Amino acid sequence: MYQIYWLINEFKTKTYIGFTDDINKRIIKHKNNQVKTTQNFGKFRVFILENIDNLFLARQREKYWKSSAGRKKLKIDFEKI
């Protein structure tokens, strides 16, 4: 099972979208500044966008969420947080 997740920093100024097959391990890496793109994120909240059984589909969906259309949808949801 793969999870596509969305991180939002505490000031709501930075976001990150990723996917993993071990969400707990991946979040620990983010919190311990072991992921280059989120090293300066500070505290953040985690949202699971999707759970997907297939690696190929998970990569496709992550790509969608990082696209303009996916970001627009997230922006609408982001304003509700």
What is this structure's SSE topology?
Blueprint: E1 2-9, E2 15-20, H1 23-31, E3 44-52, H2 55-66, H3 68-80
Into which percentage range does the β-strand content fall?
25-35%
Unreliable runs? none
Helix content: 40-55%
Can you tell me the CATH class?
Alpha Beta
CATH level-3 fold name: GIY-YIG endonuclease
- Rounded to the nearest angstrom, the distance between the terminal CA atoms is 26 Å
Q: What's the CATH H-level superfamily name?
A: GIY-YIG endonuclease
> What structural class do you assign from the helix and strand content?
alpha+beta
Report the CATH architecture.
3-Layer(aba) Sandwich
Shape: globular
Q: What count of domains describes the coordinates? A: 1
Please characterize this protein's 3D structure:
The protein is an alpha+beta fold. The protein is built from 3 helices and 3 strands, in the order ββαβαα. Strands 2-1-3 form a 3-stranded antiparallel beta sheet. It is globular, with a radius of gyration of 12 Å. The mean pLDDT is about 90.
Summarize the structure.
With 81 residues, the protein is of the alpha+beta class. It contains three helices and three strands, in the order ββαβαα.
What tags apply to this protein structure?
single chain, 81 residues, alpha+beta, GIY-YIG endonuclease, 3-stranded antiparallel sheet, 42% helix
